[in-house]
């Protein structure tokens, strides 16, 4: 039965026999009985409402702990994570990127200093991407740029070109200032804290958490078929 016809029938019932089939706690006019799930439940007519709005499911939360020059990290981000993000509606998958990985930090005369697994260039790449996220703010703006950097010939030398292609509205000068100033250091210290707080502690990179959890099984599923895993988990 069409929703408009159903509402007309319900309204007629309410007019002809006000007490017939109406729940005691239903204080709504008949034309509103199918307007929301709460009202339909109060009036005990859920089974008669064919097009009730459904609450949106929570997105699957994926966090990627990675290093900018790590080959396996780049492969996962470029070949698995970015394509999956492109294919899925925005409400299904929420991604957090944490560039730090196996880096180490130490306090030198009151200032944080970082040592990275693949050398100083990786530290620079990590900080550039952290500063890019900080300045661009919107995930849909900075993720294509990071994809461009990670899939190109040089993570640290292609920023200007990648911005021109994917995010021309982002000022590269602000990213450079972030990298060269205290903000970049603070961002990397924050990423260090996030990485060191992982439970269980990360043992390798890329390190993937799904809905805040990491298991060997989830990691393997994400690396084998991330799209399938997200579709399986999305309620």
From TrEMBL:
User: What do we know about how this protein assembles, alone or with others?
Assistant: Dimer; disulfide-linked.
Q: Name one Pfam family in it.
A: GILT
Which gene codes for it?
Answer: Ifi30
Name this protein carries in UniProt = Gamma-interferon-inducible lysosomal thiol reductase
Q: Where is the signal peptide?
A: 1-21
PANTHER family annotated for this entry? GAMMA-INTERFERON INDUCIBLE LYSOSOMAL THIOL REDUCTASE GILT, GAMMA-INTERFERON-INDUCIBLE LYSOSOMAL THIOL REDUCTASE
Which of UniProt's keywords are assigned here?
Answer: Disulfide bond, Glycoprotein, Immunity, Lysosome, Oxidoreductase, Redox-active center, Secreted, Signal
Q: Please provide, in alphabetical order, the Gene Ontology terms of the cellular component aspect for this entry.
A: extracellular region; lysosome
Q: What does this protein do?
A: Lysosomal thiol reductase that can reduce protein disulfide bonds. Facilitates the complete unfolding of proteins destined for lysosomal degradation. Plays an important role in antigen processing. Lysosomal thiol reductase that can reduce protein disulfide bonds. May facilitate the complete unfolding of proteins destined for lysosomal degradation. Plays an important role in antigen processing. Facilitates the generation of MHC class II-restricted epitodes from disulfide bond-containing antigen by the endocytic reduction of disulfide bonds. Also facilitates MHC class I-restricted recognition of exogenous antigens containing disulfide bonds by CD8+ T-cells or crosspresentation.
Enumerate the Gene Ontology biological process terms.
immune system process
Q: Does the keyword RNA-binding apply?
A: no
- Report the EC number(s), separated by commas if there are several: 1.8.-.-
Entry similarity comment: Belongs to the GILT family.
Location comes to: Secreted; Lysosome
Any one GO molecular-function label of the UniProt entry: oxidoreductase activity, acting on a sulfur group of donors, disulfide as acceptor
Q: Where is it mainly found? A: secreted
């Amino acid at each position: 039965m069409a929703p408009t016809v159903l509402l007309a029938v319900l309204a007629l019932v309410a007019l002809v026999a006000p007490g017939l089939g109406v729940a005691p706690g239903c204080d709504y006019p008949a034309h509103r009985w199918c307007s929301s799930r709460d009202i339909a439940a109060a009036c005990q007519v859920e089974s008669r409402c064919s097009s009730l709005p459904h609450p949106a499911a929570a997105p699957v939360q994926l966090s990627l702990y990675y290093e900018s020059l790590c080959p396996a990290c780049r492969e996962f981000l470029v070949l698995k994570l970015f394509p999956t993000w492109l294919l899925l509606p925005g409400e299904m998958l929420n991604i957090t990127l944490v560039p730090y990985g196996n880096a180490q930090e130490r306090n030198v005369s009151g200032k944080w200093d970082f040592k990275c697994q693949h050398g100083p260039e990786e530290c620079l790449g990590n900080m550039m991407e952290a500063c890019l996220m900080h300045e661009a703010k919107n995930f849909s703006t900075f993720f294509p740029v990071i994809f461009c950097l990670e899939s190109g010939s040089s993570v640290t030398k292609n920023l200007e070109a990648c911005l021109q292609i994917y995010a021309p509205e982002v000022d590269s000068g602000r990213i450079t200032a972030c990298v060269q100033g205290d903000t970049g250091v603070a961002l990397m210290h924050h990423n260090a804290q996030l990485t060191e707080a992982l439970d269980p502690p990360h043992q390798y990179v890329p390190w993937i958490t799904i809905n805040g959890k990491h298991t060997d099984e989830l990691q393997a599923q994400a690396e084998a078929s991330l799209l399938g895993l997200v579709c399986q988990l999305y309620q």
